[in-house]
Amino acid sequence: MIVTREKTLAQKVRPDFSILNQEIHGKPLVYLDNAATSQKPVQVLDALRHYYDFDNANVHRGVHTLSSRATDAYEGAREKIAKFVNAASSQEIIYTRNASEGINLVSNTWGVSNIREGDEIILTVMEHHSNLVPWQILAQKTGAVLKFVELTETQEFDMDQYKTLLSDKTKLVAVVHISNTLGCINPVKEITKIAHEKGAKVLIDACQSMPHFPIDVQEMDCDWLVASGHKMCAPTGIGFLYGKLAVLRSMPPFLGGGEMIADVFLDHSTYADAPHKFEAGTPAIGEAVALGAAVDYLSTIGMDKIYDYEKQLTAYLFEQLNPISEVKIYGPQPKADGSGRAALASFTCGTVHPHDLSTILDQAGVAIRAGHHCTQPLHRVIGAQSTARASLYFYNTREEIDAFIVALKEAIDFFGGIFG
């Protein structure tokens, strides 16, 4: 009797990603830089091409057939995103170029209108620069005070300290859902609940969580949430901001121009309702349509299935990395089943610079990240100028992890021969 094993999730989806079948420096490509950007399946590329091949026209502005089809596809994608995050309405989804623009939108509208001198904004030391710099600028303009949640001994969100930082002066809590460096998963539902008890608003940076497991903004109860399309199988240049409709309606426009108006007179204008109030000018129509296709693609697979498979990869990655004595991994260890942290590992190898390590791995066809990952303050906290980072997605395999480990050990031996 012949027993056939069921294909893994990665084996099922690999044919959709032609880029993963190429060779780099004569070696099969092992792409482990998914926290920086994901690869795009053919279904998403086809949707982008279809728009330009058959529906290319401006949205909302024409009554001809092409404009109607473009508008339907554009707004249809918004509906898909709303369902994907369980928003109460598609009006709560605002297209942006990326998550950074979404955070800047909130800072420059709600922030400018509501933050005053002496008000407090709570962030964490693990924030991506995109969820740090806009609040620094706002604090400099307004005289607000920035406070920071620090790390526990296991390099996770310090909930006890967070509770001590909250006060009647706290107006905003802005926190990353998953650290792109530490891989820790922050308890955003509890963080939000406690903040709301103090009357503070909450913004969640979901760039590293949105691609990997189900997100429910109503259950989370956050006031805003941002995500980038390019990390979830969509093209670059498109992302979205979720906001509670009542909060969005209370915010002034971000940019002025076409699309975001109701009526324009020579001396004043009135503005459209959300979401269009925040989408001035011709948008990235094709990219938005492709983001909708990416949401379809991920939903068809199932976010629960993606998360379950990635937990297996996480457990295996750490099983292989932990015995290597030269490797120091940052962030919490996963549980036995791979849960408890994201499917990435940031690490150092003694005195070997991560850039040198990444260069050697590239020669073996293995693509990883090296640098401060846009978290310079965090790297100062953990005592590392920079780190190497291997980050996984649902199309990665155990065999690719094995190839990474072999290349990593060879690189360590190489540098040991030079510096040892």
Q: How would you describe this protein?
A:
There is one protein chain. With 420 residues, the protein is an alpha/beta fold. Helices cover 40% and strands 16% of the residues. The chain has 14 helices and 17 strands. Strand 1 and strand 2 form a beta hairpin. Helix 4 packs parallel to helix 5 and helix 11 packs parallel to helix 14. It starts with 8 loop residues before the first helix and ends with a helix. The mean pLDDT is 96. It catalyses: (sulfur carrier)-H + L-cysteine = (sulfur carrier)-SH + L-alanine. It comes from Phormidium pseudopriestleyi FRX01. Its EC number is 2.8.1.7. InterPro entries: Aminotrans_V_dom, Cys_dSase_SufS, PyrdxlP-dep_Trfase, PyrdxlP-dep_Trfase_major, PyrdxlP-dep_Trfase_small.
Q: What key attributes describe this structure?
A:
single chain; 420 residues; alpha/beta; 7-stranded mixed sheet; 4-stranded antiparallel sheet; 14 helices; 17 strands; 40% helix; Aminotrans_V_dom; EC 2.8.1.7
